[in-house]
Amino acid sequence: ELFDFIAGTSTGGILALGLTKPSKEDSTKPQFPAKELVNLYRKKGVNIIQDRAAIVFAQGFYDGLGYDDVNNQQVIQRAYDEGIVAIELENLFQQKFIPVLWENGIQLSEQTEGKEVSTVEVIDTAYLDDDHYSDKLKLIEEQARAVRDEVLEPLGIYQENLDKYRQVFTKLVDEQGYSLSQEDKAELKKLQEHYQLKDEDIALLFKEAEQQQAEKLQQQQEAERLRQEHRKAEYQAKLHRYEQELSKAVNVAYPLDKNVRDNLKNFQQSNGLQDEDVARVEQSVIAPKEAEYQRQLETQRLQQPAPSNDLPSDRNVDYTRLRDFLKAGQWKQADEETLAVMLKASGREEEGWLSSKSIENFPCTDLRTIDKLWVEYSNGRFGFSVQKRIWESVGKDVGKLGDAIGWRKGGGTLGLMGWMNWIDYSQVTFDTKAPPGHLPVGGGGGGSVFLFFPVWSVCLFSRVETCKL
């Protein structure tokens, strides 16, 4: 009838329940009047609370409260005063219990001088320190410490159990990563129940571990990215040094001799440089030098006497058709004629192909005549001697020679599958726009250049050197 809302903590909760329990006869009225609840505490309060001072104060407080307007602060003060009188009448001050009256955070009652005071109020955990209890609650240091320990003890035990759980959880994550097995999760659930830990605290631990795992992965990825960038920078620096050494070498002498080529190869291998990267560098450095070298050869050729019609042969081979094809710019016919005259000069017309032995014994006079005709009518662009010079400039590497003179496309090796990158005879360029050394091929027979090229490169160039072309 007097209050819209009644609530309380501890003994106040018991009173709140008693005051709000509906009557069986009239549900709009309480079953127990406030006076009966006061009598209940007067007779059985000690058994309920085990705090006589609190019981006596409550009885005096409710007697003083009466049925006046409880919103009147004077009524509250009067009830408080009667509660204090009740404690005094029972002579309970020696137990060091005196309530303190507060309103809106302001202390309204004063302590009895010389007496130690205790109070019960809602305590924010942010103020769990001795200064809070000593200053705000007016407790001596010993009492403040006792109250703090009483409040903190359950929290301390809970935190200790949470730390134990955290240690087990952290060890599992360190050993297995964040993705724990179902067995481990089941064991952790048992541990949580054993320590009576809240789900929200466990969820927070898992969330923190997930974030840490994500941060760790991100750090690892960033570290790997930096390592790759560092390795790439180191590699580019080594490749740049190779380019510098190569430029220095070609500026000293070109074509490069064998010793220089060997030194550059050792530099490449010791620094782990890839063939394709080295090939790009060599192309950019050597191409201008090769063009300059070709111009020098052309100048020398123009300064030489006009070519004679003398076509010597130790085997009485007629080179007139070869000369006429070359002179007319009929490069394919000239290439096929080259194979024909070489078969005749080596006595292998019936076999139709040149063996390594036949090339090794090929007459120098005839080899010189064939090469002279190719060099002469191609203005120094084609011929065995041109091919040999390029072969030496690429370190006598068959694959690199194939790339340089246009017989191989897309790189590769000379392995079982490497032949696929070598051109067929049908793909040979019979034109002066072809790369230097592209001709002669030697007939080809319609198959891949790879099938007969090694014989030419190993044996023919050795013979060209012997014959001093």
Description:
The protein has helices at about 10-20, 35-50, 50-65, 75-90, 130-135, 140-175, 180-195, 200-250, 260-270, 275-305, 320-325, 330-345, 355-360, 365-375, 385-395, 400-405, 455-465, and strands at about 100-105, 105. The chain has about 475 residues and is mainly alpha-helical. Helix 8 (about 200-250) runs antiparallel to helix 9. It is rod-shaped and about 150 Å long. It starts with 10 loop residues before the first helix and ends with a helix. Residues about 110-130 have low confidence and may be disordered.
Shape: rod-shaped
Q: Which stretches are poorly predicted, pLDDT < 50 over at least 5 residues?
A: 111-128
Q: How many extended strands?
A: 2
Q: How would you characterize the largest beta sheet?
A: 2 strands, antiparallel
Mean pLDDT: 78
Number of helices: 17
Q: State the end-to-end CA separation.
A: 129 Å
Q: In a nutshell, what does this entry contain?
A:
The protein is mainly α. The chain is built from 17 helices and two strands.
Topology overview:
Blueprint: H1 11-20, H2 34-49, H3 52-65, H4 73-89, E1 102-103, E2 106-107, H5 130-136, H6 141-176, H7 182-195, H8 199-252, H9 258-270, H10 275-303, H11 320-327, H12 331-346, H13 356-360, H14 364-377, H15 384-393, H16 398-404, H17 453-466
Antiparallel strand pairs: 1-2
Task: Throw out a few tags for this protein.
mainly alpha, 469 residues, rod-shaped, 1% strand, two-stranded antiparallel sheet
